[in-house]
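Hi everyone, sorry if this is the wrong subforum. Our group has a chain we'd like a structural model of before ordering constructs, and none of us has done structure prediction before. Sequence below.
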Amino acid sequence: MGEERKFVYPAARRDDSIKDDFDGTEICDPYRWMEDPDGEETKEFVKAQQAVTTPFLESLDSRDEVREKVTAYYNYEKVGCPFRKGDRYYFYRNSGLQNQSVLYYRTSLDGEAQVFVDPNEWSDDGTTSISSTAFSKDASLVLFSISEKGSDWKTVKFRRVSDNDFMEDKLEWIKFSSFAWTHDNKGVFYASFDKPAEIEAGADKGTEGASNKNQKLYYHVLGTPQSEDKLIYEAPEFPNRMWGAEVSDDGNYLIISVRESCEPKNLVYYANLSSFDGSGSSLDIKELVSEFEDEYNYITNEGTLFYFQTKEEFICIDLESPDKDSWKTLIPKGEDILESVCCFHQNILVTTFIHDVQHVMKLYELATGKFISDVNLPTIGTVSSISGEKEFSELFYKFTSFTYPGTIFSYDLAKKESSVFYETNVKGFKPESFTVEQVFYESKDSTKIPMFLFYPKDVKRDGNAVTYLYGYGGFDISLMPSFSSLRCAFAEGFNAVVAIANLRGGGEYGPKWHKAGVKEKKQNVFDDFIAAAEFLITNKYTCAKRIVTVGGSNGGLLVAACMNQRPDLFGAVICHVGVLDMLRFHKFTIGHYWVSDYGCADEEEDFKYLIKYSPLHTIKADGREFPSTLLCTADHDDRVVPAHSLKYIAELQHAVGSQDYQHNPLFIRVESNAGHGGGKPTSKIISEYVDVYCFIGYALNAKWLS
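Answer:
Right subforum, don't worry. Here is the predicted structure as tokens:
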């Protein structure tokens, strides 16, 4: 860090009379008022924090050089896998620094690209984005799920493919919904919530914090108002349940996936659509899977034979004989983790498996599960997307890795070989100048944990390299090798090591790996991350004062909890949109969905372990200086509400920042007109990373190399 200095932080009013009783244990919540994002006191607190943070960040050395490098490395053409709909091939493309990617189409694979829709035209600041699209079966109609200011709330608009203008139809109050067209083009199935009372009272969409419950499944008939949409299914006795709708490939069935948490388990219902026209009598909805015991993802069907991917297998269920004893396993559980299945060319399955945190790709026959062949991949890495349709023979996939910017391949089934369709080029980036390695280290309980490292080849193993340590460790999410031009810019700019730790709680080794890092076992995740830092120090990559830990969302919980437990082990902490109040997270927006990973403080046994690691409640001024800390949140984050970060920084500054021995800065950065991260425009991404990298340089006393 630079010269030693003492920071003065804005005072936040503490109301120690606000307390919650957890089965006889009283917990004070002095900053409860910060849970109202539209309250004047909250707004003034944010303004006061920014008045300290912003000038500090803008005063840091090398901002121009950092911005130049970050911008240059982000300014490359980004192209997504083409996907065929009817006679057109669609693909997303960003020329480099466009705020949002543009959706293009071609009438042939080598035809001229034409703009289909450009979301950059929808807002001056680039904060309106396409969240998803859904084409009708004949590809003559399309809907766009649109997000504003990064909010999880979506507005759905429709258009005919042959027209340039949107239709009058519009759907609102949609969040976490799939979309499924009936094959007669009359309408679409979707799920929505009731309009929140806070928004009725004048709150801005995306800033309200009320819990989202009682989602309902509807059918919208084109040309009619949303108020007339037909209610297909609801379950008020199960307010946490959410509904995912699909129409079968043959158009004859509605498949409903029922979930009630983030746990990878769901129920499956179905209904025959042969006489459904969107009005009149209700659908006869039947249960196919009636217990939350596994995950069932519909892949395709042949008549009454329905094919599902589970967490570890590929199975077939006959609707005419749906008893579990009659289910057939076509691809059984193996040593590798089955991650994805896609059907193309009528009867061919393309699958990806995870083997020691890298992808393996294989082809199988649909009806029998018979192995056909491997698909050879270029190196250790990830198949980040696959594009194929059952009725078409084309197959495209995109491959990426830490120093492999991304190549789209087309696959020739007859020749059983891949050819390059599009290759990404990042000007000035030289993959050959990097070393990439995978290591395995022991956690506190001797469990072997994998971790990827990449760094410039001239980094010295002298125990002094700047090291960017990233982790997540939750919700069955696997951190696979992927390219990030921003991380590569960091590695080159600071001549640094980038370390990605594959912690328990993720999905890298299947359900057991995930379960080993949830609820009462969550401390395993923190132990894994702490052990990663200790491994890097012991093996002379770096030292404690040169490590910055970075995490977002559940990863924000990770880095904050580890900082509270071991403030001596890190030089800096970057906590993006973190879940930091583990006693109240379930009370806001979609937080109740996370109870499957965290537990719930309203339950006595869960409270006992949550209070031990909840970042907001475990800040201790015990004489150890805390690392330089930068929290990053956003005013329209309705996934992890800003109150988590606001309350945490207030407590951190109060308890630790006031101590004579605390010289490292403790700051918060609040982005305006942005959410949890999805749909964030390029301009905001670059500005945020310039601030973050300059802060890290200051905190670790590291010079940016021009």
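For your construct planning: The radius of gyration is 25 Å. The first helix runs from residue 40 to 58.
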